Amino acid sequence: MNQSQETALKTLQFYATANYPCSYLDGQLARSQVATPAHLIDTAAYSALIRNGFRRSGLFFYRPHCDHCQACQSLRVPVADFRPDRSQKRAWLQHHHLTTTINAPFFSAEHFALFQRYQQARHPSGGMDADDRAQYQDFLIDSHVDSLLVEFREPSPGNAPGVLKMVAIIDQLDESMSAVYTFFEPEPGHSYGTYNVLWQIQQAKARGLTYLYLGYWVENSPKMSYKTRFKPFELLIQNRWLVMDHKMDIHHLPHENFTR
Q1: CB of 129 within 8 A of CB of 119?
Q2: Which of 109, 132, 152, 228 is the most buried (most CB within 10 A)?
Q3: What is the pLDDT of residues 149-194, one digit of tens each?
Q4: Residue 123: CB partners within 8 Å, gap ≥ 6?
């Protein structure tokens, strides 16, 4: 941790929330530790927080703080060491023709419509598929850190912008990038999500960064399983980042077999 990160953290306060229904494991309660005040959490402060297991949702910075469960583990990919597997190579070839435009986060009715289609197809009745622009703004657009909004489009002839297929919100931090959220056209037979992670790994590497953070991994949550396919990866376990290589089986690995 550099001096600017240490200075930034000294200005923050932390509190634990009350219990609420767990988003990942049915029938369980969860709590979070929250960092405040949000207006003081800039890129330097968040760079330190994310190394300690925090995530960002809009202006809300949190990490799991459950009383009797440690199922949520932060996962990051050391981008210089990453090697795609066969299915990931196929996903790259399938979608590498998409054109990209990188902006600061902004509201767009086109983006919001795609977000709603994605939520209705992938997460129906999850609370984010309603026509609530304020909630969308709070969740994805508001940020006090160095955030990027990336559009992925099918190329069109001439100067036409092309058909929007995917949008990614990404944080660029001091030594890493963090995948905040990605939504895409829910079309069968496509691998937009896998391609997007591959694109972010390539971007982090091109920008001279060390890691891509993919958020929390929960072993018994099927919607989180894709994250462990990007190998090698590191998990934050008992305040230490531990490396998983290509041959290790995360589902049957005792803690003593982790390497630092």
Answers
A1: yes
A2: 152
A3: 999 999 988 777 899 999 999 999 999 999 999 999 999 999 999 9
A4: 129
Look at residue 188 and tell me if it is in a domain: yes
Total structural domains within the chain: 2
Q: What integer pLDDT is reported at residue 151 of this predicted model?
A: 98
Range of the domain at 159: 75-215
Q: For 68-90, how does the pLDDT look when each residue is reduced to its tens digit (9 = 90+)?
A: 888 999 999 999 999 999 999 99
Instruction: Please check whether residues 49 and 93 belong to one and the same domain.
Output: no
Q: Are strands 176-184 and 211-217 parallel, antiparallel or unpaired?
A: parallel
Burial 107-131 (b: 16+ CB within 10 A, else e): ebeebbebbbbbbeeeeeeeebbee
Look up the pTM and report it: 0.90
DSSP-H helix ranges across the chain: 3-10, 43-51, 86-95, 109-122, 133-136, 192-206
Distance in angstroms (rounded) separating the CA atoms of residues 193 and 74? 19
In a 10 Å sphere around its CB, with 0-12 CB exposed, 13-18 middle and 19+ buried, how is residue 170 labelled?
A: buried
What's the whole-number average pLDDT of the chain?
89
Residue 242 belongs to some domain of the structure:
no
Q: The tokens of 143 are what?
A: 């940020």
